[in-house]
Amino acid sequence: MAFAGISSVQVLQSAMRVAVQNHAVIANNIANADTPNFSPSKLDFQGTLRETLEGRGRVALRKTQARHLDMTREIPRFEHIALSSKNDYNKVDLEQEMANLSENTGNYTIYGSLLVKQFKQAKDMLAGLR
Amino acid sequence: MLEAVSAREIAVSGLRAQRTRMNLIANNIANATTPTTAKGGAFRRQLAILRGEGVEMGISPTNLGVKVERVMNDPSPMRQIYEPGNPYANAEGYVEYPNVDLAVEMADLVSAQRAYEANIAVLVSGRRMSAKALEIIQA
Prior knowledge:
The structure holds 2 protein chains of 2 kinds.
Chain A: E1 2-3, E2 6-7, H1 8-31, E3 41-43, H2 45-53, E4 78-80, H3 94-129
Antiparallel strand pairs in A: 1-2, 3-4
Helix pairs in contact in A: 1-3
Chain B: H1 7-30, E1 46-52, E2 66-73, E3 79-82, E4 94-97, H2 102-138
Antiparallel strand pairs in B: 1-2, 3-4
Helix pairs in contact in B: 1-2
């Protein structure tokens, strides 16, 4: 159950962590649906992932000294969407946010189900040993 | 950085702000026909000014959510209605009524209600996510 040295449990764990962060970002956008001058934020996880997979993400820095800063840490990126629908300079699209919320909850549920499946498989294997 | 702050608190701050808006609208509607008397006490339409911050690098997560920054009085002119029989009428026969427009208040009420429901949806989805996380333990 491991690919390239990473176990699928670890992958699912980090995916769930991202979904929780995304949930907080969407919650903040919805809470500020009537705040003047507010622009919604977006956790651009999939874009960053795609860039990294295609090798055109961050330029890898070479560490020549042990005291150099560690650049392997993933920094979440946020982007602003430019659209306007109200006259108080609030740019929150409530329908879009609700759709994002629903999608994010669905993703989290899928990751959770997959994780449950992983543990079930491990348990069945252990039962087979007995 | 965002794990520390729960989406639940953000949604609750949204609920609180929208509830304040709805209370102010109720007060505006209730006082829509309170005339300015000789004792003064003119009622003015009140509205809540909300404040919140987007998620950015460098903003501490405790600042997330929405707050009612202040409640301000609407500075627009009062309604002058010709009612010479009214004891509160001025020399020209006009009575000063609050600058409350029922149509505006009803539209604001619908908008506040819709935003309130959206925050409830955040709470419901958060609960579904917690329930899913608990399922992993049961596996």
